[in-house]
Amino acid sequence: MTKTITTLLAEVQDGRPEAGDQLMPLIYERLHRIAAAHFAHERAGHLFQPTDLIQDVYLRLVKPGAGPWKNRSHFFAVASRCMRRILVDYARARRSTKRGGPLISVDWDEALLFAPRESRFTLELEDALHRLERRSARQGRVVELRFFGGLTVRETAKVLRVSPTTVKEDWAFAKAWLQRELEKVR
């Protein structure tokens, strides 16, 4: 009998290490896609590689007592958030080391289409996303799940427990709002 990702996550949480061995092959490809989406917005020659980021996140999230995971979408959403935080922390440390240079500004649609390679964009986007989250927590989560997590509209709706129409509306508004905020930094 093949176990589901959700079942294996629950078993890992309950302290069954063999479940982790069964889980990794089932989640690796999706974690790699999420990591690749995050790295699409990073500078070339980054200290981390997607596989390093996956290992770090896996060790943090797939251990006894981690979770609880409601389902696989919830797990992947949390994994994406964890990846984002690791990369933002790295970018902040790198910026504080360099202590200088103006931040670059990147158009929101350009970020989605061309994937700029600068950690500074990560910080600008992170700051703008925090401002959006203060305005609307749900819209901030939609951006996090869709842009950073690579979730579909349907998956995002399931995680947030709202309709796909609500996700589409929040996504459209959040993109426009973030684009305006990023243009202010220019």
Cα gyration radius (Å): 17 Å
Looking at how many chains there are and whether they match, the oligomeric state comes to: single chain
Largest sheet: none
Spans with pLDDT under 50 lasting ≥5 residues?
99-119
Number of domains as seen in the coordinates: 1
Number of strands: 0
Residues in helix, %: over 70%
> How large is the share of residues in beta strands?
under 5%
Number of helices: 9
Shape: globular
Secondary-structure class: mainly alpha
> How far apart are the first and last residues' alpha carbons, in Å?
56 Å
Q: How do the SSEs run, as a string of H and E?
A: HHHHHHHHH
Mean pLDDT: 78
What does this protein look like?
With 186 residues, the chain is an all-alpha fold. It has one domain (5-185). The chain is built from 9 helices and no strands. It has helices spanning 5-13, 17-39, 50-61, 72-98, 108-114, 119-135, 137-148, 153-160, 164-185. The longest helix has 27 residues, at 72-98. The protein is globular, with a radius of gyration of 17 Å. Mean pLDDT is 78; it is low at 99-119.
